[in-house]
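RETRY 2/3 - previous attempt timed out on the joint model. Re-submitting the same 543-residue input unchanged.
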Amino acid sequence: MRVPGVDAGPRVLLLGMMGAGKTTVGRELSARTGWPYLDNDELVALAYGRPTPDVLAEAGETGLRAVESAALGAALAAEPPIVAGVAGGVIDDPGDRERLRSADAFVVWLRAEIATLAARVGSGEDRPWLAPDPATALATLYAGRAEHYAAVADLVLDVDGRTPGELVDQLLAVLAPGPF
Amino acid sequence: MTLLTSPLHDRHVALGAKLADFGGWEMPIEYPGGGVLKEHEAVRQRVGVFDVSHLGKASVRGVGAKDFLNRCLSNDLDKIKPGQAQYTLCCDPSGGVVDDLIAYLHADHAVFLIPNAANTAEVVRRLAAAAPDGLAIVNQHREYGVLAVQGPQSAELLTRLGLPTGHDYMSWVDAQWEGRSGIVCRTGYTGEHGYELLPRWDDAAPLWDALLAAGEDLGVMACGLGARDTLRTEMGYPLHGQDLSLDISPVQARAGWAVGWAKEEFWGRDALLAEKAAGPHRILRGLESLDRGIPRAHMSVLRDGAPVGEVTSGTFSPTKRVGIGLALLAPEVAVGDEVTVDVRGRTSTMKVVTPPFVEASTR
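RETRY 2/3 succeeded.
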């Protein structure tokens, strides 16, 4: 069942780069529908018991990937309806990509221009792995990811120049329950 | 290649149906105790139930879904309202037909499509490649079964199952059957009053059983795709791959009624407008045999000994008891002309006619 809103209710997974608006859009969608929102950082904290920066500091990038993969598993196992943000790095993992493709979930790629992402993540103070030049770091991360996002997404939403409310309007038009 | 099977495959095997490959799906041609002629007659005179679950199902969802499809598909979706269905074409920029399909309008943000089995993936691929962000093109091929209930007693049969029947031709309603939800469409491919039911995939088998059981005293028959072909040919309905194809445009196939000529944009528009203005180099006409010959696809059509075209579909009409067919003929061949068809070495004389061969009772 790949079209949500018909049987057990939707399981919406929000994908995209950091700064694409997964948390903002997820919370807005949750507020409008009442579907619980599971943020990736919360899922990571649940899986590891510590926030994401601590995981990175203590377990390194490989450890963080493993925890993010576990967080995806938790989002896929949660009882629908739910909305969940998926960690940016999950898309780099072939096994997780396959899980996303075959998941009983509606996968949304929040697509953004690098300039939009760079403006949103600011100087990168909160995200030390982007320092010293977020735009270049984001462009490097983004290279190669776009085709993977496109391959797993049921829906692409361009976020540039759109408010969270407008994006949720678009998303709800797709998810609206209907006879088909 | 392993053939796909419908949710009713076990039922067909149990009934001893003769099975064949239809667009990659193993589907019933005819059933023992029936056969094409009896199954055809059941639909014209009583009611028949067909498994056509091999047909594709796809939906286009999101803000502007209808407007997007209206810029792609040939017919004008602005001519129908939510709850209505429309026959339309997915054309190539060359004007050839990728597929003919039915579009079911739910709302401006949601349209459901039933393409042909073999063409569904290609239609979905073309739509997905063209879709702007914010639209989801979802291939739902194996989420719904399709049962066609066709014939003068079809409404009576559906009523016995508590299903709605009063809606207009080419419209659909949301329906419940024993707590299961599905769609009841007033559509078909037989020319009779009829319905196409879309249960969820797993509900198709119990619904099939219920229809055959409830219609026993009505003389309901399980009907195969053989009878479906003779029924549609009597109506002159084109079959994609024979009477419509990438090489046969709607202008040639006299399917211009399914083209929204006034629209500013749809796939194949420029090529089709040019072909319409210049006049097609061949036109799909009906052929009715004046002797015992039965036209078959690919047979040559001659007039005064000179080739003037080719048969695209042909069969024995169970209703008229005569050979009938569709043929692409040179434009100078007129309705009423007599032509000959080389039927396996014997010359058969046929009259050029405008289908349908049998009056439609769809409404």
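The first strand of chain B starts at residue 4 and ends at 5. Closing ticket.
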